[in-house]
Specification:
Length: 252
């Protein structure tokens, strides 16, 4: 299989290590205002997007790995919709994990959600360990998308599902100039006045612009081995869900 590397900031001597450190530092710095800005930026639609994401998980679910779990919203939505499921959330940003742990401890669910440090491109789990893998707004922050998807495939049990939720560049038409203006002006200003970090919220539209198109991400998932891959547009195509299945051994 041909290895593809897709960096958020390609070119020059930019390395995996420097990329990961930059991402880690950025998310550690904006943790305290992260949830607030997510709600404001999306007009609280991010809550319904995560709900829709979890609604696509398979029935009879027992174990979920939430990659790039951040402050734990997807993990908590998983246990809300699936009362018997156990979730492990991993993230490289220590401050985000601390915020997630505060949410979990506040709900008194120590046995339902476990949170730990982990790298999306080298997940610290054995193969075929989870019924489902989720990642929300995290894949485009990874240096090597192909490698990250391969890791998600590896840790999935046969017939398990992967669900990816992420932003994409605005479709052509009337929406594009409006969204572009929002990304270029409103988001950085919100970052400056609320998070005191204009650079982090200038990075956001840049990362979306450089991310795989929804169709290219679908093709990459299929090339890795995922089957029944479907693409679900949300919010007029600004957000997409990608849902894929790891085939049973006899389906290969």
């Amino acid at each position: 299989m041909k290895k593809e590397i897709t960096s958020i900031n390609p070119g020059g001597s930019y390395s995996v290590e420097s990329h990961e450190q930059n991402v880690k530092n950025m998310f550690n710095s904006i943790t305290s205002t992260y949830d607030l800005l997510n709600r404001l930026m999306s007009l609280r639609q991010d809550v319904s997007w995560r709900r829709k994401m979890i609604e696509n998980l398979p029935e009879n679910l027992t174990t979920v790995l939430d990659v790039a779990t951040g402050t734990g919203d997807v993990a908590l939505e998983s246990i809300r919709q699936f009362p018997r499921v156990k979730v492990i959330g991993v993230d490289i940003a220590v401050n985000m994990l601390k915020a997630a742990k505060e949410k979990v401890s506040g709900l008194k669910l120590p046995d339902r959600v476990n949170l730990l440090g982990g790298n999306t491109m080298n997940l610290p789990f054995g193969s075929a360990a989870f019924n489902a893998v989720t990642i929300a707004f995290g894949l485009r922050n990874v240096f090597d998308h192909h490698r990250a998807l391969c890791e998600m495939y590896r840790v999935l049990k046969p017939q398990g599902k992967v669900i990816i939720l992420d932003l994409s560049f605005a479709p052509s038409g009337l929406l594009r100039p409006i969204i572009n203006l929002y990304f270029k002006t409103v988001l950085p200003l919100m970052g400056l006045f609320i998070a005191r970090d204009r650079q982090a919220y200038t990075y956001l539209p840049d990362s979306i612009r450089k991310f795989l198109s929804p169709e290219d991400l679908k093709k990459m998932m299929i090339s890795i081995g995922f089957s029944e891959v479907k693409l679900i547009p949300l919010a007029f195509g600004i957000v997409h869900l990608h849902v894929g299945k790891k085939p049973a051994a006899n389906e290969n």
